[in-house]
What does this fold into?
Amino acid sequence: MSAANINTAVAAAIAAMRVRDFATAKTELQIAKAELAGTPDAEHNGEVLRWDRSAIDSLITQVDQQLAASKGSGGVQTTKVKYVGATS
It folds into this structure.
C-alpha cells in the first residue's frame, strides 16, 4: 500500500470518467479505497498527512449515479448521419 498506488488508481478512475466509462471508474475507485484501507495516516517532522477516505466514498456514489443513468437510457447512443442521395 502506497501513495503511488492510490494516485495511480485515482488517475485511472479520472481517465475512465473522462470517456464516460463509469464501470471502470468504479473499479479503479474501489481499488483506491482498498489501498487507502491499508495505508495509515502519517507524520514526519511535525507534518501530518491524513487521507480523506470519505472522498473516495463520495466519488463512488457519484459514479454509481452515472452508471444508473446510463443504464436507464438503455445504452443507446445517437450518431448524426448525412444523407447524400441515392446511387445508381
